[in-house]
Write a structure and sequence with these properties.
heterotrimer, A mainly alpha (368), B alpha/beta (257), C mainly alpha (307), A: mainly alpha, two-stranded antiparallel ribbon, two-stranded antiparallel sheet, B: alpha/beta, Rossmann fold, 10 strands, binds adenosine-5'-triphosphate, binds magnesium ion
């Protein structure tokens, strides 16, 4: 169904413009709707969903496009976050501007991506998985322990008092007034994150439909054949690692500014696993699917969190089961059930044939 | 039109543990010819292809291609030098469309990087359009243009073979190496394949052909080399090879005759 | 006290436990090519069940070895059931699915088991009741406790038994055939489903034993203990060459030794810059180093790409 409407939009310029405008309006009004109905805690969750979308799209380049199983992806998020924390907090007394830190975070995370990729690209499948997983742990353990002899990361306590994101002298930490409207802080962050998420979506789509994107998928499909086609698989894989990592770096920087606090705890293996689940469960390699995965897996645990306590009280009159454990239990079950019923993900990329020719009958044939 | 050597293999050796897959194999392929490589199962033909295309590192010998020494063990460089191949057990990008498969073949002759892809500037757009045009041409050339948008894995066996050839041709090769392209094809399909290979040759591309279909090899090839247990036992025009006693011996009772 | 010898002993003990758990990973991987991500949690369940049984029986006046035996049997039984259920529910339906699908269900199972354990046993650490007769022995200037001796011996015994089972019995032959080529094995009359189930059950039984060993060795158990342990054991399996039984044993022991020697000496190596809190890193660095030079592990088969 979805494909059908998307496909028809592609051929009707006016419909497309109207749809885009409506979509834009909805996205713009969204935080106000959420804020006024569900409250600020949900708005924060939505802000986080944006960050996770960026992460999932970044990991999707590595896992979904290039087919490289990376289980330590959160390390790049950590790199971006810590870079922001170090360059804009009282910890070192530095307060550099965001337009410097975020690109620097992307670059540094990209560098880490290359650093991880270089020695490991000869490894296949599951071996790569465990090495990347180890790499993620290494980064986290360093962050935990680099507080002595020289205090760089402040160890397990983490770094607090991080500068909120500021742009042109305006801080997003306080309500803004724009043309007489007051935009609360969480809303402002939402717009910023949305803009960056859309930018990353845009970049990903452009990459997917390019010579580089095709090379990634070719490597995923058959590495030997890809080589025989003249693809320098080592470089192209490194590029996947670097690009994916840099998205993670951007999201990490935003996270640090948003949260005002970073500690190694936020970057444990479970987080990597979570992002991987977003990619796979959403529909590996398919951009809308991955976005969906990011949103669902951010929101689902929160729904369980908000539900686990109250529902018990409503039924039993008291809390019988630890709500935190119960919510994760339900989350785990949800992962299993979804995968059992949709092994290729919720929204997989069955529609790989694109607008080469674009007869609409093609779309119907696809329902196989 | 025939003349200088395009490829010269000198004393190529390759072994896997105790198995000597290739021993001192020397052969030279002239520009513009169709050169057959035959031999019983396990003779080392595919191994020779793998060495030639940089997939295996030879344990001895050297390859001279178009006058230059080939650096071993870098398949993408072999493609860049102008050696393209197909695989005995078809290796397509199954979840990409036929069109995209051929477009991947253009990778080595095109340049757009990440920045070009993201900015989508006029140069990238032109290049992308050219890739697409060339891929369409090639799909027409191998006669599967009507399957352009289908996933490669949904193509029929014969069409997959053709698609693989189109993808190889997309790399603008000087030498096209085909590993048993007629395997599993019926009579008409094989006939179509013969026409295709002849066409490729007349476009100036040298062809190296591994094939078990004797009729096809003898009818198509200018010269033929025979491998047996990793050694070249004969190299000549088909009519001579066919009568060579060593060859007949190798094929046990001479199914060649 | 000789630190070097002491670390070797500690490493051997730790390594034996790693090896037992690594066997579970490697057997499943060998047969199905699947990382059983939830295996670490099975170890945790084993430890928790064993501990609960021991606590229940501790005051009963039964002889210690009977208590331990009952605990072991109970833990093994529960773990075997859990292992069997995991395979049936989360992996079997996905045998033909895209490769990452079972990985995600495995992660799901892992989350479920962990939180189930939290619901049943709570968030707190559980102390191992001091029922074991702990005697200390001196060798070469280092001490080894009777518990440690028992751990190493039992682990060695179990591994020998497993290898004998795989090498010399009909079942073992069927397992090897299945891991070599499932369709052919099936044609030869091997009931693949049964073999796979058995593989999970055997691996889970080993995990239960390992669980009891860990909690006895460190005198503690916790709902979260399976995670890091599983990770380390999987690392060990990969280090040795995943899918390879001897590799898992070798990888486990090596990893144990590396870790405890690393923890003991990392400060000296780095001039005091890195302390023993970097112990975990050490394991991963070694892993990365080994895999870079031997991409299929220490004694894994070299998979040359056939084209
Ligand atoms: N990667 C490899 N590892 C081990 N042995 C190999 C490998 N590749 C080929 N061999 C062995 O080398 C020998 C030659 O094999 P090759 O595939 O080159 O034969 P072939 O002439 O192509 O045979 P066929 O006509 O059956 O395709 C065989 O004995 C084969 O088993
Ligand atoms: Mg062959």
């Amino acid at each position: 169904m979805m494909t059908l409407t998307l496909e028809s939009l592609r051929h009707d310029k006016r419909a497309a413009i109207i749809a885009t405008a409506l979509m834009g309006l909805a996205l713009a009004a969204f935080p106000f709707m959420v804020g006024s109905t569900l409250g600020n805690s949900w708005l924060r969750i939505i802000d986080f969903a944006m960050l996770y979308i960026m992460l999932a799209l970044g990991l999707n380049i590595v896992v979904g496009f290039a087919g490289l199983l990376d289980m330590g992806y959160i390390a790049f998020y950590a790199v971006g976050a810590y870079l922001y924390a170090l360059l804009a907090s009282p910890h070192f007394g530095l307060h550099l501007p965001i337009w410097l830190i975020i690109p620097a975070g992307a670059a540094l995370a990209g560098l880490f991506g290359a650093l991880l990729g270089a020695p490991t690209l000869r490894l296949r499948g599951d071996y790569l998985a465990i090495v990347t997983l180890g790499f993620g742990e290494i980064v986290r353990i360093f962050m935990n322990n680099l507080n002595s002899p020289v205090n760089i990361t402040n160890g397990p306590q983490g770094i607090s008092g991080i500068d909120p994101i500021q742009m042109g002298g305006i801080t997003l930490a306080k309500p803004l007034s724009v043309l007489g409207f007051t935009v609360p802080s969480l809303h402002a962050y939402y717009y910023l994150f949305l803009a960056l998420a859309l930018f990353i979506v845009f970049v990903t789509i452009r990459l997917e439909n390019s010579r580089i994107g095709r090379a990634w998928v070719a490597i995923r499909e058959d590495e030997v054949a890809a080589k025989a086609c003249g693809i320098n698989t080592r470089n192209i894989k490194l590029l996947a690692f670097t690009m994916g990592a840099s998205f993670g770096g951007v999201a990490g920087g935003l996270f640090a500014g948003f949260q005002g606090f970073v500690s190694p705890e936020s970057f444990n293996l479970m987080e990597s696993v979570m992002v991987l689940c977003m990619v796979v469960l959403g529909g590996m390699g398919n951009i809308p699917g991955v976005i969906l995965g990011g949103v669902l897996l951010t929101i689902l645990p929160e729904i369980f969190r908000h539900g686990a306590g109250p529902v018990q009280t409503a039924i039993f009159g008291k809390i019988l089961l630890d709500p935190e454990a119960l919510r994760m239990l339900l989350f785990g079950l949800a992962l299993i059930v979804v995968m059992l019923y949709r092994p290729a993900g919720i929204w997989p990329s069955t529609t790989r044939r694109r607008e080469f020719r674009g007869e609409s009958s093609d779309v119907l044939k696809e329902g196989e | 039109m025939m003349g200088a050597n395009l490829l010269e293999a000198r004393n190529i050796a390759k072994h896997f543990g105790g198995v000597k897959a290739l021993t001192d194999v020397s052969l030279s392929i002239r520009k513009g010819e169709i050169y057959g490589l035959i031999g019983p199962n396990g003779a080392g033909k595919t191994t020779f292809f793998n060495v030639l295309t940089g997939l295996y590192h030879p344990d001895g010998g050297e390859l001279i291609f178009a006058g230059d020494k080939l650096k071993a063990s870098a398949p993408h460089l072999a493609a860049k030098c102008g050696i393209a191949r197909t695989f005995q057990n078809i290796r397509l990008f199954g979840n990409m469309s036929a069109m995209e498969n051929v477009m991947v073949g253009r990778h080595v002759r095109t340049h757009a990087g990440v920045i070009g892809a993201v900015l989508h500037d006029s140069r990238t757009r032109r290049e992308e359009a050219a890739i697409r045009r060339r891929a369409e041409e090639l799909l027409h050339y191998v006669n599967i243009a009507d399957r352009a948008d289908d996933l490669a894995r949904h193509l029929s066996y014969g069409d997959q073979r053709r698609l693989e050839i189109a993808r190889a041709l997309a790399t603008d090769p000087k030498l096209l190496a085909l590993d048993e392209p007629a395997a599993g094809m019926n009579g008409t399909e094989t006939e179509g394949l013969r026409t295709l290979i002849e066409g490729i040759r007349s476009d100036g591309i040298t062809v190296l052909l591994i094939e078990h279909d004797v009729k096809l090899v003898m009818g198509l090839c200018d010269r033929v080399a025979v491998l047996d247990y990793g050694e070249k036992i004969c190299e000549d025009v088909p009519s001579v090879v066919q009568k060579d006693p060593k060859v007949i011996e190798a094929y046990l009772g001479g199914s060649l005759a | 006290m000789d630190i070097f010898i002491q670390q070797i002993i500690n490493g051997l003990v730790l390594g034996s436990i790693y090896a037992l758990v690594a066997l579970g990973y490697t057997m499943v991987y060998g047969i199905m090519g699947l990382i059983n991500f939830a295996h670490g949690e099975v170890v945790m369940i084993g430890a928790m069940v064993a501990l609960t049984v021991i606590k229940l029986l501790a005051g009963s006046g039964l002889p210690v070895y009977i208590v331990i035996l009952v605990a072991l049997i109970a833990a093994s039984a529960v773990c075997m059931a859990v292992g069997y259920a995991i395979e049936r529910i989360a992996y079997r339906p996905l045998r033909r699915a895209p490769k990452l699908a079972p990985l995600i269900t495995a992660i799901g199972v892992s989350i479920v088991l962990q939180n189930l354990a939290m619901l049943v046993w709570g968030r707190n650490y559980h102390a191992f009741p001091p029922i074991l007769p702990v005697s200390e022995h001196e060798i070469l200037g280092a001490t080894i406790t009777s518990v440690q001796v028992a751990i190493v011996l039992i682990a060695a015994l179990l591994m020998a038994a497993l290898i004998a089972l795989i090498d010399h019995t009909r079942l073992g032959r069927a397992m090897r055939a299945t891991s070599e080529n499932p369709p052919i094995a099936q044609l030869m009359g091997v009931n693949i489903n049964q073999i796979i189930s058995l593989t999970f059950v055997i691996g889970s039984a080993l995990a239960a034993v390992a669980g009891l060993m860990v909690s006895a060795n460190y005198s503690i158990a916790h709902y979260y203990m399976g995670f890091m342990l599983g990770l380390k054991a999987f690392t060990a399996a990969v280090l040795g060459g995943i899918g390879n039984i001897a590799g898992a044993v070798l990888g486990g022991i090596l990893l144990g030794l590396i870790e405890s020697l690393g923890a003991g000496y990392i400060g000296d190596f780095t001039g005091g810059f890195l302390g023993s809190n970097y112990q975990d890193i050490f394991a991963f660095f070694v892993l990365i180093g080994v895999l870079v030079f031997r991409p299929s592990g220490l004694i894994g088969e070299k998979v040359s790409e056939r084209a």
